[in-house]
Request: fold
Amino acid sequence: MYNMELKKLGYSDQIYEILRQRIVTLSLPPGRKIDIGKLSREFNVSATPIREALKRLVERGLVRYRKDTGYWVVPLTDKDVQDIFVLRKVLETFALNESIHSIRLWEIEGLLKDSRQLLAGDVSESELRKIFDEMDELLHYRLIVGRCKNEFLKTFYTIMNDYIAIVRHLNERIMAAIEEHVEILEALKRGDLEAAKVSLARHLDSSAQACRPLPRSVEEWEVALEEVSIKKKEV
Amino acid sequence: MYNMELKKLGYSDQIYEILRQRIVTLSLPPGRKIDIGKLSREFNVSATPIREALKRLVERGLVRYRKDTGYWVVPLTDKDVQDIFVLRKVLETFALNESIHSIRLWEIEGLLKDSRQLLAGDVSESELRKIFDEMDELLHYRLIVGRCKNEFLKTFYTIMNDYIAIVRHLNERIMAAIEEHVEILEALKRGDLEAAKVSLARHLDSSAQACRPLPRSVEEWEVALEEVSIKKKEV
Reply:
């Protein structure tokens, strides 16, 4: 679907963004070897801009390189997922100190309203996933982290957000997560920093615990993703 | 001094590393515009591998890009420095939970011995700076952060470590910092996690407070760096 003609200028920029998207949406699953020759034919460019894009993805932590075997998508283990949640807890509860007074009341009330609509079951299964993904990104990334004043924290979190997006696709406890969001949002609405921090920490701990074991090889990933895509079609 | 012949293969890799070093050692000071044409003549290569190296440095947060003006070294403000120390405190005190039992006794005792030698005044002024820089990196980066098991925290900290290195060159309270290191090391030796955390947090707070106002423009940076280099020659 990306088999378009790439503009002459900025090949590697475009390839970088396409590959990043493929990794984040799991269309290139964790642990998959990256075939430069195949990409070169797909995009009809030489190997050079592809290698440059891959080097930037290595810098971002999404791709690994080994001299003898080349480039591959970073594998993602159960321990990685737990590490991400633990680090999110540290960074997000810290960010909340500064962001709580910068989040506007109408934003909190908007998210509360949407959350309650989802809890009332007014939307279809496929819409639920889509709306929840947006709400989750809005609450954690744009508001809690994005409104804090520490630019370095925001930069690091942006890199981590790619991993969070990868993991988000494999999480099935949407309703429980929305209830936890409501708890956080109500504390934010009251301006109660300590209660908001406690609810946020509990929400991230529960999410970490609810993560089912990840596939442990590229083959297992492909089976798991096939199941998810069949589910999506059934809806 | 880098005016060597670059190997035909991996131009952009080498240029990336040279530019990263120049930024971290302040030979390319914060806020300096990067002149692609000049680098192209210096390294005797086309603009393409230089641009690729710059894009990777943007990914790493050391270089900024704006469409109309091109590439320049990230400016560094007093607020950035404070943000770095605050975030270091969050990440390092957290990392210490896991690393305290992985740091070996002989490493702690070695650092304690070196610290006491420096405090006793047994080394020259120029050696003091060099040995302190190594000790500081060893304690904070290799041991406290490096021995923790959270791979994501380590990755982010590695990026932040480039900024820490930039700032380290402008810090003049070496003796006080060594005394604080001794306090942390003694707590580590006793295996006293809480005391080690308190000492570490206090050390980072003091370091943040002791930072003198940074130069606010490229011109001011150049004057400040000139003074540092004159001091070095006088020693």
Remarks:
- Chain A has two domains: 11-74, 78-214.
- The interface with chain B takes residues 12-13, 52, 55-56, 59-61, 80, 83-84, 86-87, 90-91, 94, 149-153, 155-156, 159-160, 163 of chain A (CB under 8 Å).
- The domain at 78-214 of chain A is CATH 1.20.120.530 (Four Helix Bundle (Hemerythrin (Met), subunit A)).
- Confidence is low (pLDDT under 50) at residues 1-9 of chain A.
